[in-house]
Amino acid sequence: MTPGDRIRGRIKRREAVVCVVGLGYVGLPLAVTFADAGFRVCGVDTDAARVEAVNAGRSHVPDVPSEAVARLALGAGRLSASTGFDAVAEADAVLICVPTPLGKTKDPDVSYIVAAASEIAPRLREDALVVLESTTYPGSTEELVLPRLLEGSAGKLEVGRDFFLAFSPERVDPGRADWTIANTPKVIGGVTAACTEVASCLYGAAIAEVAPVSSSRAAEMVKLLENTFRAANIALANEMAIMCAHLGLDVWEVIDAASTKPFGFMPFYPGPGLGGHCIPVDPHYLVWKMRTLGYTARFIQLADEINSAMPQHVVLEVTRALGSESKPLNGASVLVLGVAYKPDVADTRESPALDLIHLLRQQGARVSYHDPLAPSIREAGLDMASVGTEGEPALGEALPAADCVVIVTDHSSYDWAYIVERSRLVVDTRNAIARAGVEGARVFKL
Ligand SMILES: NC(=O)c1ccc[n+]([C@@H]2O[C@H](COP(=O)([O-])OP(=O)(O)OC[C@H]3O[C@@H](n4cnc5c(N)ncnc54)[C@H](O)[C@@H]3O)[C@@H](O)[C@H]2O)c1
Question: Of 48, 303, 340, 440, whose CA is between 20 and 30 Å from 69?
Fold first, then answer.
């Protein structure tokens, strides 16, 4: 028998038990994907409400229908959850999907990975596979997880022989139905070649295509390249928008025309700034790692500078729009449309709308917001309810009452013709109105 034969056999016969640690936006869809593929899956989460929801057949993640959780948890009995880590002792594979936020100084906060690895280590069974899925800096799997799994074994345990360890970045795009975990190729990098083989065998049983790379560090870097690529290209589009504004050009027209080139160009679009849990956060993991090696990741820092300044640029556009009607921003009523970080999701984490609301208020504007998916904002020092919720005016009343309406998130449920018809002045940071073929004299674009 070669190392990994036993676990590979159990995976192939669907006898392997999969434990998913962290049942959030990443962990819950992953748990459902493996349970759907025929594995018994136990989830572990420190949040008792999430555990209770899964065991009751309810989903707290918009991309995962409650029916799927109910079918697998209550019907097939293949999905369960707990707040304790005892399930690890029974698991053939443990997939870590805990948060990796930034600290106040934009340094990585890897405390959740460390906490999860420390709980897993004493319970890990022989021959088991551990995979880190949380986005993190190159070297994390080897530097943070491996030493904890080896701790206390007095040199008896060997990775790639007695247990297997790999990194596999999560590529889920919240709100997206065409590319799911099951049909998006999965990059896998093991700490040893045997680790890559075992991890590829597991993911290959539930996911259409796996893309093995030579090491866990390479797999960690793949994720950071993907997200840095987006952050840097969005920054380029944002700077193009600022330069076009100076030149009196329509940036959207310029990008659309450039997109007619069949090769060597890929369109990215400007907007009010970056948002979400990933694109504004992940590149800083690489910045930090490179700083420890005495290298400055200039591209990432410049992109961050440009993207972070976009809400300020939107404030200038709102000031300019109000100025065209001889109104000052100070004292004006501004209605922000859409506060989620991207269309058709409810997630407001790191949303540029939050910065924008603060900046507008600092300039003396009276700010309200409407979002069909985010009825309230209770974060980043804000405590607001959406227009259209209890005690707030309906959108139809709020639009004409505002001196300026600012489109921040172009949810597909918005009726742009109605919005333009009822608004006195619109600043459109997403080009949503022109894209919908709606015309309006009082519409200012980014
Ligand atoms: N959300 C995305 O679109 C996305 C996409 C790709 C990668 N990622 C990465 O995946 C990771 C998880 O992100 P997420 O969006 O699922 O986060 P999340 O906050 O939605 O979920 C994380 C879960 O982990 C739980 N948790 C925290 N500490 C724990 C511990 N010690 N033990 C067990 N459970 C614990 C939390 O209670 C929470 O339910 C992050 O590294 C993130 O950068 C996220």
Answer: 340
Indicate the top mutation candidate among 33, 44, 85, 97 to test ligand 1's pocket, ranked by most ligand atoms within 8 A of CB: 97
Q: Do 325 and 200 sit in the same domain of this protein?
A: no
Residues 237-244: what's their mean pLDDT? 97
Task: Verify whether ligand 1 is closer than 6 Å to residue 275 (CB atom).
Answer: no
Instruction: Note the pLDDT of residue 125.
Output: 94
The answer to whether residues 214 and 254 belong to one domain is no
The verdict on the CB of residue 26 being under 6 Å from ligand 1 is: yes
Nearest alpha-carbon partner for 189 in 179, 178, 203, 200: 200
Q: Give the pLDDT band (50/70/90) at residue 440.
A: confident
Q: In b/e form, how buried is each residue of 332-363, taking b as 16+ CB within 10 angstroms?
A: bebbbbbbbbbbbbbbbbbbbbbbbbebbeeb
Residues 419 and 320 in one domain: yes
Q: Whose CA is nearest to atom 39 of ligand 1?
A: 24
Q: Is the Cβ–Cβ distance between 273 and 308 less than 8 Å?
A: yes
Q: Which helix (H) or strand (E) holds 188?
A: strand 186-190
The one-letter amino acid at 85: F
Task: Provide the annotated active-site residues.
Answer: 278
* 100 lies in the same domain as 165: yes
303 lies in some domain? no
Q: Which residue is listed with tokens 């069974």?
A: 125
> pLDDT tens across 91-100, in order?
999 999 999 9
- For 120-141, write each residue's pLDDT tens digit: 999 999 999 999 999 999 999 9
What confidence score (pLDDT) does residue 116 get? 98
Q: Is the CB of 97 under 6 A from ligand 1?
A: yes
**pLDDT category, 195, cuts 50, 70, 90?**
very high
Answer whether 429's CB lies under 8 Å from 407's CB. yes
Question: From the CB of 138, is ligand 1 less than 6 Å away?
Answer: no
3-state secondary structure of 431: coil
Which ligand 1 atom is nearest residue 134's CA?
41
Q: Ligand 1 pocket test: which of 21, 30, 45 has the largest number of ligand atoms within 8 Å of its C-beta?
A: 45
Domain boundary among 209, 224, 239: 224
Q: Which domain holds residue 134?
A: 5-224
Whether the full predicted model's pTM is greater than 0.90, yes or no, is: yes
Check residue 441 and give its pLDDT. Answer: 81
CB of 425 shorter than 6 A to ligand 1: no
- Count how many domains the chain has: 2
- The Cα–Cα gap between 444 and 314 comes to 11
- CATH value at residue 373: 3.40.50.720
